[in-house]
Amino acid sequence: MLSCNPTREAFAIFDFVLSHPHIWIALAVIFALIEAFTLGLTTIWFAAGALIAMAAALIGLSIAWQIFVFLISSLFIIYFTRPFAIKYLKIGKEKTNYQSLIGNIGLVIEEIRPFETGVVKVSGQVWTAKSPDKKIINRKEKIRVMAIEGVKLIVEKLEEE
User: Is 90 exceeded by the pLDDT of residue 94?
Assistant: First the structure.
């Protein structure tokens, strides 16, 4: 069934001979497929490492060296290229609806009193809101969203310029 011939550096599976370069290219394809289905920017680096290990196999390095080349090249590629890819591809940086409200300006619909909530309208949506400094923010005054706690916006009064 499965046998290894150390002199030829190949494996036979059901009379089908796989050399080390074939195995590395198969691993590269597997890692690339996993990446295509997950889009997490995690396994693509190992696909590149497998291609580099395939090159090591083609020049005749032993399987131990091929594995070493695979691990080192994968880690090297991850360490030096992943931060740039994440930065420029914006992986995992998409704001959700509520996070995008922080920094927006809105209008007070119902007065915000100390230790109580009021109602504000921000980006066309109505929210309950409170002031972190426990000051009164009157109706029809402009506010800026500072944070979100649960389902309440933490807002500050915009000072008139």
Answer: no
